[in-house]
Each structure stands twice: as structure tokens, then as C-alpha cells.
Amino acid sequence: MSPAARPGFGIRIRHARQLRGLSLEELGESVGLTQGYLSKIENDRAVPTISTLHKIVQALGININSLLTDVSAPDNPIFVMRRGERQKLVTGHRRAGNRVVLEQLVPSGPQYFMQVNVHVIGRGGGSDEPISHRGQEFGYVLSGTLQLTVNGNCIELNEGDSFYFDSSLSHSYRNVGKSQAKVLWVNTPPTF
Question: Model's pTM, two decimal places?
């Protein structure tokens, strides 16, 4: 994997694991992954899927946005994230068809009560297995077609459609359209 293609969040996962006093083996047992694979993730030599990454951050008591670089607190009461300044977190693999790119719109930190990202989902991509966590979620489909499954209920959403559900319910999604899908996705509290 070339340095430019590396995800760059492995060191933050390692730091969170070490802060909790967990070995690679202990973390692996709690999330169902091998020590070797976790080591590759921590060293930015492997890119987990969105579902696998979610399992890891939940076991570490953090959220996915905390893996991105901290953004300075604004000097005024309005925080602005310019289009070209968004941090991106790449998960999954393009060839495997499970790539999801999260574009961070709101920084992470204790002062932020929402986690807001644009999920950019390649054709056929999405979460490879259902996840659940505490909180609530809202989404607005900016482009493309998304199949959302919540607690066994499957619905197809198109550009301009929105959704809302309790995050503690098992949920997953997949781009079932013919082109890339983009979804504005909000979690509160930031537990994803």
C-alpha cells in the first residue's frame, strides 16, 4: 500500500487501545479479529470495512470521527468547514465493493453533540454487516440510491429522501443504484 493510500488512523486506534490497557490479543478477542490483522490496521497496512472499524471503536469506547485529526476550536461562535478542507476517512476496499468514504463536516470532541458526515458510497458498497450503538440517526440522500435496513425492515431511498431511526436497532446500508451515492448522515450523541 503506497503512503498516499494509507488511511492514517492506525496510530489513534493504537493509542486508544493502549490507554485502555488492552493488548492486541484482548482487543482481537472482543471484536473477533486476529492480532495480526489488528496490528496491520494499527500500522496503516490494512483498511478495515466500516462495520469492522465500528466494532473496534466501540470496543475502545471512542467513535469513528475521533480517528480524524483534531480541528482547532473556532475563534467565533460559528464553525465553518469549507468543501476542500473536509477530512476524509476511507474504509473498505474499492475492488471488494465495500468502500465507504466518510467526509467529516463537524469536528469531534466533547463540546460537539452531533457527529455529522457525508457518506460517499461506491456502487454496491456499504456496511458489510449490521451495527448498533446508542443514539439516534438522521440521514438525507444527496445523490444516488440507498437500501437501508433497520431492525430487519428494508427500504429503498433515493435522492431527496430522508430517514430517522433509533441507533440501538440493528442497521446496515448498501448502495443499490447504478452510480455513487452520497448521504448526509447525522448521529447524536456522537457514538458511531
Answer: 0.77
